[in-house]
Amino acid sequence: MMTQAPxxxxxxxxxxxxxxxxLAKPSFAQLQxxxxxxxxxxxxxxxxxxxxxxxxxxxxxxxxxxxxAQLHGCLVDQLSRDYxxxxxxxxxxxxxxxxxxxxxxxxxxxxxxxxxxxMRYPTPLEFELAAGERGHRDNAISGLIHRLTGAEACCVVNxxxxxxxxxxxxxxxxxEVIVSRGELVEIGGAFRIPDIMRQxxxxxxxxxxxxRTHLKDYDQAITENTAAIMKVHTSNYHISGFTAAxxxxxxxxxxxxxxxALISDLGSGSLTDLRRFGLKQxxxxxxxxxxxxxxxxxxGDKLLGGPQSGLIVGKQSLINQLQSHPLKRALRCDKLxxxxxxxxxxxxxxxxxxxxxxxxxxxxxxxQDTLRQIGQRLQQALVPLFQPAYGIELQDCxxxxxxxxxxxxxxxxxxxxxxxxxxxxxxxxxQHFKQAERPVxxxxxxxxxxxxxxxxxxxxxxxxxxxxxxxxx
Length: 473
Known about the structure:
Oligomer: single chain
Structural class: alpha/beta
Strand content: 15-25%
Radius of gyration: 29 Å
Number of strands: 15
Distance between the termini: 59 Å
Helix content: 40-55%
């Protein structure tokens, strides 16, 4: 009887280990405990299918057949990638502190602790412990906002665009809203104030011109069908030169005389004076309310430094209309956002520690001299690791706030700048940085990869990350 040659396709197919024999190995059994049998089996099936293709096309076995540890390593890499969280920590060294694409404001340790607690345990989200009865999920935030701004009440939704939509839908639907032509802003993603008004069911009445609007323009536009005048803070652009705008205090008087509401969209609202950092002072909700604005909306995740949310503050009677509107349930925040927002607002009750406890304020507060000292230490440690392919130097630069806040104001900063030398490639270096365990996101500019150090969180951790990347080159 003739025996089959050991290298024939039939013999090679028989030499492949079976699925069951692989799954029974202790190392693969451990993978099943981590990722589940179905996932491990699907990954193995892919390798076995590739092995059969290799046999049919090249008449040989894959290398892992003689070394099962190699197959195990491939599966570990594949499964870890498949189960990797997409929202992983990165280093934001782009020169934009509130970077929309990188999650905007970092949360304080108190906010992180608060979110972790409400995730782990039941919490009285809509239950008044003292009274032993059902409560409202916005009550705690409303109480803090009253202490911080003097507002009678507060309504919380999932972002400021939602806040504007709810405010207009509940207060002005079916009626006219007067807005200056210079304030018909687009807030990003082609999302514009006129579009929001159409969705809210109210009619936009434009007054004035792009650069100049006067009190008489508003006065002459008011009719019996007017529900409100709306002010929109142009936080994401600036017009200079021959300009004129009407102050909220004067509009407040006009609205009271004519019996209509005055509402305001601050966009990236701030509760503190930013001039101590060298930034411009932003209009605050408390100032708007003192000027007679009835409702003010602003973001929680921009200059406030909290989680993504939208806050509407103002008169109790109007807030009640918002809370009872059907849209509120669709736009409301869950317990995680409310916990983080509450912890953030509590920081504002102690202004003496605000600049150290709230990450965004800590980044604003760093002096350029401090950043330069950090840069010098990093440069000294990293230069030997990146030579000879890359040079590293320190350069003064400017950091922007970001997220449409103060587009024409910058903070002085220092950048760690990488330049490609012989054998180096900035595009490959940038990709190398992005593939790090904690990706390092910088900015390409003037044939340099620049890491703006105002965005640094922990000097020692960044040094360790960059040192590892340098050794791997």
